[in-house]
């Protein structure tokens, strides 16, 4: 599948391509072109190079009738595309050289691109890594998603508090997509059911058109390319001319407003579901358009709809697209005249469901009233699925029902409709079986399997950390990018002083670069020789940024008490957004910023402690901070973080972890070895036990003078001098409820932090541990994850 034209591509040729696009696609001459114009021209020139492998991949799939995999996700947190595409095509060097001839700087141009932020956090970023790995592995596949006009909001800090402004990535031209106005489907909502000639007919009350926008996703070395198809919404009737002529312009535009509302904005909730009618409509919009498109493509080259399950697999990324089951059945029954039982069986053979969380607030439930009013036909079908499943399992507990207490439980629906259900780390999968779906797991043994998450090494090492990537290549040769297990070959080199020095020199350079960026971005000077202690992820109580701030305050207090003492210098770096409606998380953000203000302006802290919280953490910021991290904070309450993927990225880039036995931390620790992982805290089982003691928080605080002092300092208003009672609520909750057990794990966390300090004081030991982290991360390549999905869930084969 290699692009045969590529060897002939020269620096001059590529320069001409860029100039051609600048002139004929962008419409600018080179003397008046802005960075934006150059970026578009470069993007189009690169995109041209994807088209050949893209067409070739599509043709190969048709010609060989490969099994196709469809990934349905409400989120794709892609980030920037240009540099990633250039690297995968092997054209970054050539592009940079060609631009140099034109007086332009590749890095400046790449940085001009806005992040495609069509996701909240880990779940959306995972979908993006998986799309890239499927292309790398030659897994014939399509991603389906929503083309949100506004991705995840931009975060600002106003007096230390999070404020949100709309994100606006589509206000600029988006050069990576191809609009497909000819690929469109009518999606229907509301209305009622009627009996006509013995058939039930859905008479919809609202309709919108889903129209396709395709982005080619190119894999490593451009050997294969898949399509990410995002659906935009268009009105079925443009506008009401009669109303317009009467002068009622607002009412005339109603159809357009209705349509555009659906794809207007990404719901900014991570691990909590919104429960809003519009969200249900978005989910059905994605699902319906995708399933119709899938059936259309299937029937273009196959006659027998009953053979569908031999030729395709559909993966549901959490329950957000779980209407795929009822929708597929609806189309098979109502349009293709299959009996319900057969439609059910085919659909089950086709579908897979990935669960990403056990948190009760994230488990989608829709009232039967809302489901029945937005999707009356689907409500009927869901009840039939439920009845058929209950009938097939007479000796069952009540808890397996899909419809319970007048609510549709989307987790149970997805489980029943899927032939494989998977968790995202070994621990999480065990908990899916034992805590989330115990009865369903017993009824369907073997259905729940594990596929531990992974991250793409192309973006998270090659692109984000070119210094380390080059060192790896110098040390073990080329090819590790698509065979990450080869990082293991670094292990013997860790004994070599020269290698360790080179490894730490890369880290030092990355830290210096990040320090410069922090100075520009936050106006705070940090010492690149201090330990960079990084916690970057969504702000959530279960992720326990609060415990990290408490520890920061304890450290500040220690230094205040002993200003002449010796302390290991640390820069505490935080990054992450809170859901706009999540008041407790917003309070934690406020506290971090308040503590930063006090710490960073305290002369006693100079050379010892700094707190940095750059606003608007996103994929691009992750690419800056992760390569500069020494310490990775993975400190969630055990049993709550399904997997984590930031933990993998940080280890891959040579950061040591301080963490709990949660999610994929367990597997990371297994691989790097217990002596190279700073473990602390209760296990998932101990967490459950601990909560039975209603006085757990009070007892934990009473047992620790340091923690008592921390809470006292916060309560006194030492970090909020102009509003001393600001954190009374927070302190009260720490003493009296503390569901996520910050106080119970705090003392052990401090103990582990002291061990971190001791290790950092021995640079040679630290270097060995850091290099070992990189060397042992091969397993966490998303290529390994996708192979697992292909073999154990999709039954798909590589086309390469
Ligand atoms: C994860 C979500 C999530 N789990 C609901 N669940 C959402 C749930 O908009 N919603 O309604 C959005 C997102 N996200 C994360 O998935 C887990 O917390 C991480 O531990 C995991 O690594 C990641 C990928 O599997």
From TrEMBL:
The gene is glgP. It comes from Sinisalibacter lacisalsi. Pfam families: Phosphorylase. Belongs to the glycogen phosphorylase family. Allosteric enzyme that catalyzes the rate-limiting step in glycogen catabolism, the phosphorolytic cleavage of glycogen to produce glucose-1-phosphate, and plays a central role in maintaining cellular and organismal glucose homeostasis. This is Alpha-1,4 glucan phosphorylase. Its cofactor is pyridoxal 5'-phosphate. The keyword Glycosyltransferase applies. It is an enzyme of class 2 (transferase).
């Amino acid at each position: 599948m290699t692009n045969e034209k590529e060897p002939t591509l020269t620096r001059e040729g590529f320069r001409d391509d860029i100039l051609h696009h600048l002139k004929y696609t962008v419409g600018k001459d080179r003397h008046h072109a802005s960075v934006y114009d150059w970026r578009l021209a470069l993007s189009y020139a690169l995109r041209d190079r994807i088209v050949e492998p893209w067409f070739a991949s599509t043709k190969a799939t048709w010609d060989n009738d490969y099994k196709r995999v469809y990934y349905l996700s409400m989120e794709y947190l892609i980030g920037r595309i240009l540099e990633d595409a250039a690297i995968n095509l092997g054209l970054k060097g050539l592009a940079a050289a060609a631009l140099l001839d034109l007086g332009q700087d590749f890095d400046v141009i790449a940085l001009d691109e806005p992040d495609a932020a069509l996701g909240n956090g880990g779940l959306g970023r995972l979908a993006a890594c998986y799309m890239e790995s499927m292309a790398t592995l030659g897994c014939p596949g399509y991603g389906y998603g929503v083309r949100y006009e506004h991705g995840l909001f931009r975060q600002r800090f106003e007096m230390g508090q999070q404020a949100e402004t709309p994100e606006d990535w589509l206000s600029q031209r988006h050069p990576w997509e191809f609009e497909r106005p000819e690929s469109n489907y009518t999606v229907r909502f509301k209305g009622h059911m009627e009996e006509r000639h013995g058939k039930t007919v859905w008479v919809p009350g609202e309709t919108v058109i889903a129209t396709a926008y395709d982005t080619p996703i190119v894999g490593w070395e451009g050997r294969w390319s898949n399509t990410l198809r995002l659906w935009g919404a268009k009105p079925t009737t443009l506008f009401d001319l009669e109303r317009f002529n009467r002068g009622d312009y607002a009412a005339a535009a109603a159809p357009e407003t209705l349509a555009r509302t659906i794809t207007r904005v990404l719901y900014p909730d991570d691990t909590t579901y919104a429960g809003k009618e519009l969200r249900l409509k978005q989910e059905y919009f994605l699902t319906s358009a995708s399933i119709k498109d899938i059936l259309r493509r299937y029937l273009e080259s196959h006659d027998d709809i009953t053979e569908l399950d031999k030729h395709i697999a559909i993966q549901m990324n959490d329950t957000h697209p779980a209407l795929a089951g009822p929708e597929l059945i609806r189309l098979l029954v109502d349009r293709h005249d299959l009996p319900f039982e057969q439609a059910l069986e085919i659909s089950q053979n086709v579908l897979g469901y990935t669960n990403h969380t056990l948190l009760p607030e994230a488990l989608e439930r829709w009232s039967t009233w809302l489901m029945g009013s937005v999707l009356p036909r689907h409500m009927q079908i869901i009840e039939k699925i439920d009845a058929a499943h209950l009938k097939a399992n007479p000796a069952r507990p009540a808890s397996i029902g899909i419809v319970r207490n007048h609510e549709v439980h989307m987790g149970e629906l997805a489980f029943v409709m899927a032939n494989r259900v998977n968790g995202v780390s070994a621990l999480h999968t065990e908990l899916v079986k034992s805590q989330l779906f115990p009865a369903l797991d017993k009824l369907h043994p073997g259905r729940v399997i594990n596929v531990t998450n992974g991250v793409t090494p192309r973006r998270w090492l090659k692109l984000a950390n070119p210094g380390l990537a080059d060192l790896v290549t110098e040390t073990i040769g080329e090819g590790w990018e698509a065979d990450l297990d080869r990082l293991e070959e670094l292990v013997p080199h860790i004994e070599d002083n020269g290698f360790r020095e080179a490894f730490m020199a890369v880290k030092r350079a990355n830290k210096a670069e990040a320090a410069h960026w922090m100075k520009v971005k936050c106006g705070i000077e940090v010492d690149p020789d201090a330990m960079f202690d990084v916690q970057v992820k969504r702000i959530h109580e279960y992720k326990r940024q609060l415990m990290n701030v408490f520890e920061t305050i304890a450290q500040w207090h220690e230094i205040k008490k002993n200003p002449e003492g010796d302390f290991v210098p640390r820069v505490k770096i935080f990054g992450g957004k809170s859901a706009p409606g999540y008041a407790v998380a917003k309070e934690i953000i406020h506290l971090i910023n308040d503590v930063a203000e006090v710490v960073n302006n305290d002369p006693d802290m100079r050379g010892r402690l700094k707190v940095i919280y750059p606003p608007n953490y996103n994929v691009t910021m992750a690419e800056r901070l992760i390569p500069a991290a020494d310490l990775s904070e993975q400190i969630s309450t055990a049993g709550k973080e399904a997997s984590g993927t930031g933990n993998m990225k940080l280890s891959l880039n040579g950061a040591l972890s301080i963490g709990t036995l949660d999610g994929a931390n367990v597997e990371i620790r297994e691989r790097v070895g217990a002596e190279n992982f700073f473990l602390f805290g209760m296990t998932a089982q101990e967490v459950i036990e601990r909560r039975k003691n209603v006085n757990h928080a009070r007892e934990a605080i009473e047992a620790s003078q340091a923690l008592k002092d921390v809470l006292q300092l916060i309560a006194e208003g030492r970090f909020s001098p102009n509003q001393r009672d600001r954190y009374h609520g927070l302190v009260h909750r720490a003493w009296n409820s503390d569901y996520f057990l910050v106080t119970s794990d705090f003392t052990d966390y401090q103990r582990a932090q002291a061990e971190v300090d001791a290790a950092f004081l021995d640079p040679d030991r630290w270097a060995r541990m850091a290099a070992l982290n990189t060397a042992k991360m091969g397993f966490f390549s998303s290529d390994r994850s996708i192979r697992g999905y292909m073999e154990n869930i999709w039954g798909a084969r590589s086309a390469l």
